[in-house]
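[step 3/7] fold_predict: job queued, chain A
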Amino acid sequence: MDLVVVTGMSGAGKTQVINALEDVGYYCVDNVPPRLLSKFAELPEQSGGKISRIALVVDVRSQDMFADFFSCLNDLKTSHYSYKMVFLDCDTRTLLNRYKETRRRHPLLSGEITSVEKAIDAEREMLQVAKADADYILDTTLSSPTQTKNRIRDLFSGGVSLSMTVNCTSFGYKFGLPTDADLMFDVRCLPNPFYQPQLRELTGLDQPVKDFVLSFPQTEGLLPKLLDLIDYLIPLYVAEGKSQLVISVGCTGGKHRSVVLSELLAEHLVRQNISVTVTHRDIAVRSRK
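[step 4/7] structure written:
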């Protein structure tokens, strides 16, 4: 059985996650009371094997019942049911903007909690333990719904049995740092294709840009050192029980150098039979305020 428990901040994108999991074959149920987790874990046996992949969303919408969430997770472990937990996070300013745009009510907005900002702060405090225990943390602050869905499909289209999944992410420093990175590398030290008129409108996925970036001794010196470091670190993370590693590579705009290096890193890891996903966060972004 593959059991995925989805939780996290309200407004962070749990709906996109559960839809993506359904697309790759999971039996999905939203807003599950924590006490029912063990009942759903029994479904594969009760269904005669017809249901083997289950994804459940458990969050603060269950109100007072959410207090049982962590004890119910422990009950699953005691009963020898394995699961993976996905935690959706997002910064407060972005969540406030999303609530303003959608005009939806935050589930904790009542009584002494009189503003959406206070509700978000209270929810973040309630979820600290869940975030610390999560197998996968997805920060959607700068991600579009499509990027979030694609990330989930990449992670779970083959199930959750893999011991380590590495996500190689390119980004542009001018658009903000990724908040979910485990390792972050700055490649702005490499010559910039942006200043070549014939390359400016291309991306690191185009061969001329890749050839340009790889043609310099700076890249020739940096790349093997970067790969050696990653090769050394991954077994250490696996030994510590980490199931997801996010490696972020940044350049100025996230369109050229970081894309080339992220792709090369992913290709290197794939050759070692490591499960890899690739995300180019800012490759299509021209400006963002």
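[step 5/7] annotate
The longest helix spans residues 217-239.
The two ends are 44 Å apart (CA to CA).
exit 0
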